[in-house]
C-alpha cells in the first residue's frame, strides 16, 4: 500500500510540474539519462518532474505480471523479476532504457522473434495526456485508440506513469550456439527455419540475434534457457562479448549476464573510447563499462566537438553520424546487407529477427498504426552505430538519406530514436500520420506536446 501511496504522490508531483510549464514552451522530461541520438533545440522551460516514477510497484509470480512505473529502467525491472524466475517478454539491450521509453519509442531484443516488441506485452497503462488528464488505457474500451497509437509516439501523445506488463519464466542460465555463415542467404534461411520451428538442429531456441562482420562472415547466436550448472563465461572484465562469436561455437552465460551482454561494451562502440585496448581496459573501472557512461561521453563530444576539431586540424574530412536501427523483411535482408556493405561500409552490424506477437488464442497479431509492421511477416532488425567520412561534394545527412531510401525500397521501417530526414508527406505515410493526428486532436487538443514529426525530424 505504501508503494501505491508513494506512486500517487509522484503522479501528483508530475501533474503539478506539467501545469507549471508555460503555454507555448516545449514539454520535456527532467531525467538524468537518455538513449536518444537526436540533438534537440534548447529550452528554458522546466522539465517534468518524474523523480518518483522510477520503480517497480509489484510483481505477481502467479499471474506472471508486473506493475511498473514509466521511468523504471530495465536494469531495475530485471532486478525485481529475476528472483521470481521471471523476466519481461522483451528486455532491450541497454540497462538504462526505461519501460515507458521502450513502449513510446520502441525497443527490441533476441526474444523478439516470438515476443515482438516491448509494447506488445503491455496490458494496461496510465497515461498523462497533453490535455493534462490521467487516463487508464487498455487494448479495448473508451481509450483503445490512445493505447494503439501510443507505441512510437515518442511522447507526442502523453507519458506513461504506470504500466502493467506480462512476464515470462526463465532459468538460471542461457546456453549459446554461435553458428557461422559464409552466405547471407543461408543466414536468412536459418532465421526463417528457427522462426517456423522454434528450434535448430533439434534443440529449442528461446532467443536469437546475430552479427555480420562482412557479407562473407556472419553469425547467428541461438540461445536456450537452461539450468545446466556448467561454469558461465564472464564478459564484464577483460573479455569482450562480440569477439567471442568468432572464438567459440558454444558458450553459456547466466541469464542476468546474457540480458546485459551488449551493455558492457555498448555492443562494440566502446572501441571509440579506447576501452577495448587491453591496457585501457585494465585501467578503466568496471563500473564505468556501461552504455550510459559511453552515451554521456558522446553527448559531451556533441556539445564541445573536440574530436571534430582534431580531425579538422589533421586535415581529415568531416564525419556524418550514422546511428540507426531498421526493420527489413526477411526476404530482403541479404540484399539490404550487401547494399549496406557497398554503400555505407560500417561493420560489424547487429541482426535481431522479429515478428509481431501473436498471443495465445488470439488468432492474429495486433497492428500498431504508428509503426505498421505487417502481421505474420518476419523482419530482421539491422542495427549500425558509428560515423562515416563525408565524401567530397556531399552534404551531412546524405548517407542517412540513402539508408532511408534503401529501407523504404525494401519494404521496411526505421526506428526514430536517431536522425531522420523524411519530408512530412513521406513521414506521415510511413508512420501513421492520419491516425496520429486524430488521436492528437482528441487527447491534446491544444497541441501542448511537441508533434511527432517535429520531434523526430525537426529535432524540437
TrEMBL record:
Topology within the bilayer: Single-pass membrane protein
GO annotations of cellular component type: membrane
Pfam families assigned: FAD_binding_4
Domain of life: Bacteria
FAD-binding PCMH-type domain sequence ranges: 1-170
Keyword Flavoprotein assigned: yes
Keywords for the protein's UniProt record, in alphabetical order: FAD, Flavoprotein, Membrane, Oxidoreductase, Transmembrane, Transmembrane helix
GO molecular function, one term: FAD binding
Name this polypeptide is given: Delta(24)-sterol reductase
Organism, scientific name: Micromonospora coxensis
Source species taxonomy: Bacteria, Bacillati, Actinomycetota, Actinomycetes, Micromonosporales
Amino acid at each position: 500500500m505504501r508503494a501505491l501511496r508513494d506512486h500517487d504522490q509522484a503522479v501528483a508531483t508530475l501533474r503539478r510540474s506539467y501545469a507549471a510549464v508555460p503555454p507555448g514552451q516545449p514539454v520535456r522530461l527532467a531525467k538524468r539519462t537518455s538513449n536518444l541520438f537526436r540533438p534537440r533545440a534548447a529550452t528554458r522551460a522546466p522539465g517534468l518532474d518524474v523523480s518518483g516514477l522510477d520503480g517497480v510497484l509489484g510483481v505477481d509470480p502467479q499471474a506472471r505480471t508486473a506493475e511498473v512505473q514509466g521511468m523504471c529502467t530495465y536494469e531495475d525491472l530485471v532486478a525485481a523479476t529475476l528472483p521470481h524466475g521471471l523476466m519481461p517478454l522483451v528486455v532491450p539491450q541497454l540497462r538504462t532504457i526505461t519501460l515507458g521509453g521502450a513502449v513510446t519509442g520502441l525497443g527490441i531484443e533476441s526474444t523478439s522473434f516470438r515476443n515482438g516488441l516491448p509494447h506488445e506485452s503491455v496490458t494496461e497503462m496510465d497515461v498523462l495526456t497533453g490535455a493534462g488528464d490521467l487516463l487508464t488505457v487498455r487494448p479495448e474500451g473508451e481509450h483503445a485508440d490512445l493505447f494503439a497509437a501510443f507505441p512510437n509516439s515518442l511522447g507526442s501523445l502523453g507519458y506513461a506513469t504506470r504500466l502493467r506488463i506480462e512476464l515470462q519464466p526463465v532459468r538460471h542460465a542461457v546456453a549459446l550456439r554461435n553458428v557461422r555463415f559464409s552466405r547471407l542467404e543461408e543466414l536468412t534461411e536459418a532465421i526463417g527455419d528457427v522462426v517456423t520451428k522454434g528450434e535448430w538442429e533439434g534443440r529449442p531456441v528461446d532467443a536469437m540475434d546475430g552479427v555480420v562482420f562482412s557479407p562473407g562472415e556472419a553469425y547467428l547466436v541461438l540461445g536456450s534457457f537452461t539450468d545446466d550448472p556448467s561454469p558461465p563465461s564472464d564478459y564484464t572484465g577483460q573479455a569482450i562479448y562480440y569477439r567471442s562469436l568468432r572464438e567459440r561455437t558454444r558458450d553459456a552465460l547466466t541469464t542476468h549476464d546474457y540480458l546485459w551482454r551488449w551493455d558492457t561494451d555498448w555492443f562494440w562502440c566502446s572501441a571509440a573510447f579506447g576501452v577495448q585496448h587491453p591496457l585501457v581496459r585494465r585501467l578503466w573501472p568496471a563500473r564505468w563499462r556501461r552504455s550510459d557512461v559511453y552515451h554521456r561521453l558522446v553527448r559531451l563530444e556533441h556539445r564541445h566537438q573536440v574530436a571534430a576539431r582534431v580531425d579538422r586540424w589533421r586535415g581529415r574530412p568531416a564525419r556524418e553520424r550514422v546511428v540507426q536501427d531498421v526493420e527489413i523483411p526477411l526476404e530482403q535482408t541479404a540484399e539490404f546487407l550487401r547494399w549496406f556493405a557497398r554503400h555505407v561500409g560500417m561493420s560489424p552490424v547487429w541482426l535481431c529477427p522479429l515478428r509481431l506477437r501473436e498471443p495465445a488464442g488470439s488468432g492474429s497479431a495486433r497492428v500498431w498504426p504508428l509503426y505498421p509492421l505487417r502481421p505474420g511477416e518476419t523482419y530482421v532488425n539491422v542495427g549500425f552505430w558509428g560515423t562515416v567520412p563525408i565524401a567530397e561534394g556531399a552534404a551531412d545527412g546524405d548517407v542517412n538519406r540513402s539508408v532511408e531510401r534503401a529501407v523504404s525500397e525494401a519494404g521496411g521501417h526505421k526506428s526514430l530514436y536517431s536522425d531522420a530526414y523524411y519530408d512530412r508527406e513521406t513521414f506521415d505515410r510511413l508512420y501513421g500520420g492520419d491516425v496520429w493526428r486524430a488521436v492528437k486532436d482528441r487527447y491534446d487538443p491544444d497541441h501542448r506536446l511537441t508533434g511527432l514529426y517535429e520531434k523526430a525530424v525537426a529535432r524540437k
